[in-house]
Amino acid sequence: MSNNLFPIAKEAWIYIAFSFLAFILFSIFDLEVLSILSLFVGMFFAFLFRNPERELPIFEINSVLSPVDGRLISIEECDDLQYRYKLSIDSSYLDVATLRVPMNARVKSSLMKHGTALNIESDLAKKINENVNIVFEDAQKNTLKISHILKQSFCGIRLNNIKTKSFLQSARYGTMLNGITYIYIPQNFRLNVVVGDKLEASKSLIGYFS
């Protein structure tokens, strides 16, 4: 995996480049208001796709950290033999868009479905909005399923080359600007979060495999 260590995620470069080009053109034609506006637009894109370094906290070996920034909006029981609970994390435009690996693990499977970016409240959104499903598996064969689904956004979900690769906890694996993340956790897991918690990727402890 090529891990993006720049302070601004690479997904922002095209937007910033166009903003800078517009700034130059408007400046040449002496359109001062538009040139200033395009400069602020470029700065806004840089803010949206900021990619901060984060020091990894020291937790137990079986710890699981949040893969995204956002607010935990629900914890639901699952009708599934493999997974006991489903955690829902709501990420907005103000949250850091970088996605991070929640534990030391390999990618057991991943499936990307390109689609739309409808209002998440729409019944159709969960069927046709862009989404990705990733299953991580650690050395003890513990599995964790993560689903990202896009809300209304001008930028789709972007993933690095993650198929069948192993990662260290906190490694960057993509970006999602404005979306919902579902974390499916198995029976042998101790939760460390409650509904309403504000989570930060690679810093907030979700819980432990027991």
Q: What does this molecule look like?
A:
The chain is an alpha+beta fold and 210 residues long. It is built from 3 helices and 14 strands. Strand 6 and strand 7 (143-150) form a beta hairpin. Helix 1 runs antiparallel to helix 2. The mean pLDDT is 93.
Number of strands: 14
- CATH class call of the largest domain: Mainly Beta
Spatial arrangement of strands, main beta sheet? 9-5-6-7-11-3-2-13
Mean pLDDT: 93
Short description:
By secondary structure, this protein is of the alpha+beta class.
Name some characteristics of this structure.
elongated, single chain, 3-stranded antiparallel β-sheet, Glucose Permease (Domain IIA), 33% strand, 2 domains, alpha+beta
Helix-strand blueprint:
Blueprint: H1 13-28, H2 32-48, E1 63-65, E2 70-77, E3 85-91, E4 98-100, E5 105-113, H3 125-128, E6 131-137, E7 143-150, E8 158-159, E9 166-167, E10 172-175, E11 179-185, E12 189-191, E13 198-199, E14 205-209
Antiparallel strand pairs: 1-14, 2-3, 2-13, 3-11, 4-10, 5-6, 5-9, 6-7, 7-11, 8-10, 12-14
